[in-house]
Amino acid sequence: MDEGSCELVPGKILNCSICLDILKEPVTLPCGHSFCRDCVQSFWTETEQPGPVSCPQCRQAFSHQPALRTNTILAEVAKRFQKSDIAEGKTPLGASPREVPCDFCTDSAQKAVKSCLMCLASFCETHIQAHHEKTALKKHKLISPIEDFQDQLCSHHERPLELFCREDKTCICVLCAREQHATHCTVTLETERQKKQKQLVEKQADIQHKLQEKTRNAKELKQVAESLKISEETELREIEQIFVQLISSVNSKQAKVKELITEKCTAFASMTEKFLIKLDLEVTDLKKMNTELENLSKTDDNIGFVQLLQSCERGFAETAGAG
Prior knowledge:
single chain, three-stranded antiparallel beta sheet
């Protein structure tokens, strides 16, 4: 991995969801979530889960406690991220945004790595060693470096805030616990932190569950919308095909009806034409006969009149019979 690539990794991704600090010896569970080895082991021990254990974040249960193996890649990324923060003058999660100097350096003050609530002082890597080696100092409360100790002290007694009053929901010192909070339920800040931390993890798991559920619902709704769109397009194509077929059928019927009407009209016109021709011939014959009769009415020849009239009557009878 490139030394500068850790700049692309957000710090929160490298934070343990139990202690909220940069992962230390990170281990990854089968569900994919990662935690500090000590944090997840302590979580399983403190929760005293009967039977199978579960992931502190997503609550996925495992039939048996998974083997915890260090995620070397994630460990290297966390290590490089911490180095990059130090090189750029950044501070870890929960630390003061400004660099806190060591109160015991005499020449040039080195950067403090821890502050002591008992000593009310900050120490660099060298001067903090006494707190790790001397028995009396090992009991002191060490926290991330801070500039102002006033927020860590009781405003009434100027003593370190070491306890938490669950009735008044406030941080108090040991003298407060003996006086105005004597009848109240008080616990150490570490105990309250562990309790709140479990609640926080549970809340995170609940939010994660709801997020997954909402994401799944959105995905399902999107699939329904896409399915509806496909169904709509299919139905429109089917309706269009039905109407095309109907229009084609109507056009075909229309063409046949037109053809039938045309055939009937053509047959009638042909018959009418033949009838007119016949009528024209009969009219012509009648006109000819009428002319002959007019001429006959003017003759003085009685014999010829009778004979021609009989001939005309036979012709008229034949014409009448043909009509």
